[in-house]
Amino acid sequence: MFQGVEVPQEIIAASDAKKKKKDKTLAQLPVFRAAANLLYVVTEAVKGGPNSLRKFYDIMLADTAEVMKAIGMADAARNPEDRAWYIDSALVLVNVVKFYLTILRKLGLLEKDVDNKMKRLVRSIIAQLVGWRDYTRSEGAK
Fold first, then answer.
1. Helix extents (H) in the chain
2. How far apart are CA 49 and CA 33, in angstroms?
């Protein structure tokens, strides 16, 4: 009867050491990718917008980029309190961007499919950030 392949412990240890040496990039973080997608969708949505709202769009894009920066800082932080602070900052900024989207929707400046895509991304980002923050705050707790 076939029992499978037995992998020697030395090979497993070498593989684990190789994985630990490999640098992890920010782009591998799902919440960062979702924030980058949100920035892309927001950029697409505002590129054809009226010039009278240019300042509004600039602020909206800057705040969306700040979400990505806060996520990056949270990933870089090694202290749980600092990490939670950056995650909270990202959450506040995402909610601000969500409010901007509400304004554009009420003004009739967002197409339905773009609006739905942005809503899904915002919900996804908020859910991931809340989960990450809760995990960070309870790390090491019994």
1. 9-21, 30-46, 54-76, 80-106, 112-138
2. 25
> What length does the chain have?
142
Distance, C-alpha 110 to centroid of its chain: 22
Q: What is the pLDDT of residues 39-93, one digit of tens each?
A: 999 998 888 889 999 999 999 999 999 999 999 999 999 898 999 999 999 999 9
Pair 64, 24: CB distance under 8 Å:
no
Q: Tokens 């505002």 correspond to what residue?
A: 46
Average pLDDT over residues 5-20: 80
Q: Is the pLDDT of residue 23 over 70?
A: no
Task: Identify whether the C-beta of residue 138 lies closer than 8 Å to the C-beta of residue 89.
Answer: no
